[in-house]
Target: YitT family protein
Amino acid sequence: MAAIGNLRHRPVRRLTQLYLGLALYGISMALMIRSGLGLNPWDVFHQGLSERTGLSFGTVTIAVGAVVLLLWIPLRQRPGLGAVSNVVVIGLVVDATLALLPAGGPLWARAGLLVTGIVANGAATGLYLGADLGPGPRDGLMTGYVARRPHRSIRLVRTVIEVGVLALGWLLGGTVGVGTVAYALAIGPLAQLFVPMFTVAPPDVAGGGRVAPQPAG
Model:
């Protein structure tokens, strides 16, 4: 797998960056949850399932990630280290962070949690994508589908999937609010800022001329 091959170049830097990024991603999710002001589409779905099943948010996140990885099989996608680690690490970190963060608080404090969570999520995206050890299961599902059907726009596929999980999550009781809109508007520019900043250039590129990997959509 290409992701495993990448470990031959600067493995310590890549692995450290991958796991820091995934840990920060889990923390950012917990901050947005505790804000109570709205979540990104997949987390609305995770929260709705958590409410219905009684399982912890992190457990649901891991379970959904594992199911999404199974959907890679008909697309002939091979999960790399980044995808497998994404499934496990984020779920464990989000539960640990939620255990430490109290719920509630004044609106200004919750707004601060929301803004911090969104910015941290953008930085986390830059860290783990910049490590170039494979996309997360949800991004891999979208890119794999488009690779099998090149006439489809990845933006269209991403929109259809995320609107679908958002609607289903809302029906299940997940939190949709101003944070959902703020995330949708901010995550693209934030990823565009942080992904090039943290991208590790391959050894065959001199002078840093490599084009940074872009987040799906």
Q: What stands out?
A: DSSP finds nine helices and no strands in the chain. Confidence is low (pLDDT under 50) at residues 1-5, 205-212.
